[in-house]
Amino acid sequence: MTTPLTDDLAALWEGLDDPTRAWLANAVLESNAVREVPRRSLPGWELRFSPVWELRFSEAGRHCRDTEHVARVLLLHAVRPDAADLARLYAHGTAAERRAVLRVLPHLPHLTPRDALPLVEDALRTNDTRLIAAAVGPYAARHLDAHAWRHAVLKCLFTGVPLDEVAELERRATGDDELARMLTDYAAERSAAGRPVPEDLHRVLRLATQES
C-alpha cells in the first residue's frame, strides 16, 4: 500500500494475511497503472469500459474471502474515487459492497457532506441491520444534523442494532433534551404494547438526561 494510512486503517492492514495483502497491493498498483479495461457486454451491445479499481472492488469477495470487507475499504481509500464514482458503486453494489462504501467515508476527506450524506441517509432508510450499523459510524457522527442523528439512534433501537455501533454516542447524546423526549415516548409505546424496552434505550436515555 502506497497511500498513507490512519491508525485504524493501518490496524486493518496489519490484520490481513499475506496472500490478501499481496492481492490488495497488486490491485492498487493495477488501478494506478491502467485507467480502464473493457467490460464484458451482451452481444450487440456497445463495448463499455470500467475503472480497474472498480473491477477489483467487485472481485474482492473471490480473492479475500473472510476479509473482503477490509480489502474493499482499503482499496477505496487507496484509489480515492470521486463522489460520482462512489455513488454509482453504492447504487449498483451488493449489500457487502455498500457496507464497504459507508465504512470508508470517514477516510475520504476530499468528499463533502453534500456528496456523501445521501448514501448514509439511504442506508438508514433500509431495514438491513448490517447496513444501518455501517451507516452510523464516524461519518454520521460528524455530519448528520441533530434531527437525522436522533432518528438514526431510534432506527438502531427499532431494528436491534447495538448502540455500540453508533460512533461518538456519548458526545452527541449527552444533554439532548429532544432525544430524551423521543426515547421516553418510544419506551412508553413499547411498554403499552407489552414489549420489552431495550437495555440500550435506558443507556442512551441516561446520557440524554445528563447536563451537557
Counted beta strands = 2
Mean pLDDT: 89
Helical stretch count? 13
Task: Give the neighbour order of strands across the main sheet.
Answer: 1-2
CA-based shape: elongated
**Pattern of helices and strands:** HHEEHHHHHHHHHHH
Give the DSSP E fraction (strand runs of 2 or more residues). under 5%
Q: Radius of gyration over alpha carbons?
A: 20 Å
Helix and strand content put the structural class at mainly alpha
Distance between the termini: 42 Å
Helix content: 55-70%
Major beta-sheet overview: 2 strands, antiparallel
Low-confidence stretches: 36-49
Descriptive notes:
The structure is a single chain. With 212 residues, the protein is mainly α. It has 13 helices and two strands. Strands 1-2 form a two-stranded antiparallel ribbon. The longest helix is centred in the first third of the chain and has 16 residues, at 18-33. 31% of the residues are buried. Mean pLDDT is 89; it is low at 36-49.
